[in-house]
Amino acid sequence: MSIKPKFYVKDLKNHVGEEVTLKGWLYNKRSSGKIQFLILRDGTGYVQCVVFKGNVTPEIFEAAEKLTQESSFEVVGKVKAEPRSVGGYELDVTDLKIISIAQEYPITPKEHGIEFLIDNRHLWVRSKKQVAILKVRARIVKAIRDFFDSHGFTLFDPPIITPNACEGTSTLFEMDYFDLGKAYLTQSGQLYEESGAMALGKVYSFGPTFRAEKSKTRRHLTEFWMVEPEMAFYDLDDNMDLAEEFIEYIVQTVLNDCKEELIILERDTSKLENIKRPFPRISYTEAVEILKRKGVDFQWGNDFGGTDETIIGDEFDKPVMIHRYPTEVKAFYMKRDPENEKVVLAVDVIAPEGYGEIIGGSQREDNLDLLLQRINEHGLPQSFFEWYLDLRRFGSVPHSGFGLGLERTVSWICGLEHLREAIPFPRMIYRNTP
Ligand code: 4AD
Ligand code: MG
Description:
The chain has helices at residues 58-66, 114-119, 121-124, 128-149, 190-200, 236-257, 259-264, 270-273, 284-293, 306-313, 368-377, 386-393, 406-414; strands spanning 19-32, 35-41, 46-52, 72-81, 89-100, 154-155, 161-162, 174-176, 182-185, 202-210, 223-232, 281-283, 320-326, 336-337, 340-351, 356-363, 399-405.
């Protein structure tokens, strides 16, 4: 015998006039003596179930009265189109069964402090706004996969346990690895993707990455998801063309497929509709000029902080691609600009509306000697990078790639204030529960 629901709220539009059975939880309720209005949620939507005393047995009416917030129940009723009701449909209840009466639910419609809500994240994910965010996140994940799968890329999964750093040694999560000494949680799959690109041409990875970020900003998690395409025979311009097409695709897909969610999130969608190619491209040096013009005391050669990124981003109503950063502030694997060795062929994409960097990428150093020199300059142990250097020893080619942070992207598209709502269970410097 199966108990799985035959109908879900999202399908009601196809069953107007029919009697259906729904299963779910009580989101909210109102009553006025003879009539009770129960809002049922089942993960696919919300529907008002109308229990009229005259239509049901006294037992059924009483069962409805017993339902507390988040109690689970099964309800039978006739589907009616009702434009004034949440979701546009209503159920005229003929039967109702309690599945489990919920204890006093900690999250009520009143305002709660953010710490309380995150303490109760396992319950908070049931809230309307959180459900909407998580649906958009899932849609973005699918858009990311669809994009690369349909553009000639092969999924190439890098390891999560790694013997060395990729993005600098200051944000590594360390562990003891049997008799082999220290190992680390991956900060980025990029170095492995490069070997994949030499095997398969165009590859991508998509999974969790880890940074022991000491910063408590609203833009940093210690565990976040990153998608990392890597392409053989792509230079910096090809890389930027791809990043631009990719971002446009994600945003336009969400606009098209997540209309209801964006309404629930009260997102100003006009700002997103505008996210169409081409995006502005400026050099780091030009970005520094913008800062200076805005009265920021900024020295050429420094890295941009969050506030600097916001100021630069505010100049544009689309993501801005900043390229050619000073060699000193960027990673060892980035290729030096043959026309100016003070800068590397890097690109960061800064989202509009103050959401900061969503993409970091570059053309990679493909010359064996220059790469070796950079590894030494960065004080990295050459022995760990021998396999990576092999990619330059055996048929080296120009190649490029980038990493897009999923939570930063979700946060921007949903218009969130903080990254912690963009992932089911956020991990931050001061929080690893629930
Ligand atoms: O700029 P990052 O550090 O670049 C890399 O890791 C490259 N190896 C990627 C590549 O070229 N394959 O990180 C890429 C993106 C950032 O732009 C940001 O969106 C996100 O990852 N990110 C974070 N998101 C949340 N919390 C953090 N602590 C993040 N650090 C980076
Ligand atoms: Mg970066």
